[in-house]
Amino acid sequence: MSTISESPCPIKKNPDWNNQVKIGSGRWDTGAWHRAIDVAVKLFEAGAWDGKGLIVVHDAYGTHGKMPSFVEKGGSFVADLVLGTDYELASDSMYRREG
Description:
Oligomer: single chain
Radius of gyration: 16 Å
Order of helices and strands: HEHEHHE
Structural class: alpha+beta
Strand order of the largest sheet: 1-2-3
Low-confidence stretches: 5-9
Mean pLDDT: 81
Number of domains: 1
């Protein structure tokens, strides 16, 4: 018999970064893709995105470029991003095409 108490696992399951992170407006090159994933990781780690559905990062270069300045100022990168402008959260069913 185990003496370890059973409780829900506090560890969040990582999203499928390749399929759940999308680029909205702005450049669509490889560099933008890597920056969008980095932004998504930070939002996930901060709890601003639960890792379910899709996250769309707009202007990946610009949004990612905000990160160093907020870190240097001691501010919160995630709190300064604007939902709907810098990124959007969406159900993956919104992006499926039927027929």
